[in-house]
Design a protein that fits this description.
By secondary structure, the protein is mainly alpha-helical. The chain contains six helices and no strands. Helix 2 runs antiparallel to helix 3 and helix 5 runs antiparallel to helix 6. The longest helix is centred in the N-terminal third of the chain and has 23 residues. It is extended, with a radius of gyration of 26 Å.
């Protein structure tokens, strides 16, 4: 009986719950130089977008909500947010990047492939048209960044392309 009581009160060889196994830390270290570079690049790109949006040639008379309006609004918002980022990158302490994984060779390769696909997409859009290049580009990007389900690739590409085409062609009356 004493042995049964001793077994009932003991843990039975299982480790206590408060013991945790230390996992390796793959998070990226804080970097003020990287924050400044990203903020300044975002500000420059948003100002370029603002300049380009103001130089859109209108086929019909402007005024009100025209094809310049939405790109101008988005680029002004982007420039404002980028200016805040520039200020924060110089004045605030470096942000923790605990959720961000450190840079690896695979990530750089994916970024270069994505940039190459984007350049090919812009060229194909201007020569072939919007629909086919967008379907292929969207599916290729999704595959590149990890989506392997063919249903997901087809459905998301079709839905995204149809939504953007419908938005611009039927609602905004802007040809793509």
């Amino acid at each position: 009986m004493a042995e049964l009581e001793q077994l009932a009160t003991s843990s039975g060889g299982t480790p206590p719950l408060d013991e945790t196994i230390a996992e390796p830390d793959y998070s990226a270290a804080p970097s003020r130089r990287l924050e400044i570079a990203i903020a300044v690049t975002a500000l420059m790109l948003s100002l370029l977008a603002l300049w380009l949006s103001r130089n859109i040639i209108l086929r019909m008379g402007g005024g009100g909500v025209d094809p310049k309006w939405w790109p101008t609004l988005l680029s002004v918002l982007a420039a404002g947010l980028a200016a805040i980022l520039v200020g924060m990158s110089f004045l605030a302490p470096p942000m923790s990047r605990g959720e961000v994984e450190a840079t690896e060779k695979d990530g750089w390769i994916r970024m270069l492939v994505a940039l190459t696909l984007s350049a090919i997409y812009v060229f194909a859009w201007s020569t072939i048209g919007y629909v086919i290049p967008t379907l292929v580009f969207t599916a290729a990007l999704l595959f590149l960044f990890g989506l392997r389900s063919w249903k997901g690739l087809v459905i998301f590409s079709l839905a995204t392309t149809a939504f953007i085409y419908g938005l611009f062609h039927y609602l905004l009356k802007v040809p793509l």
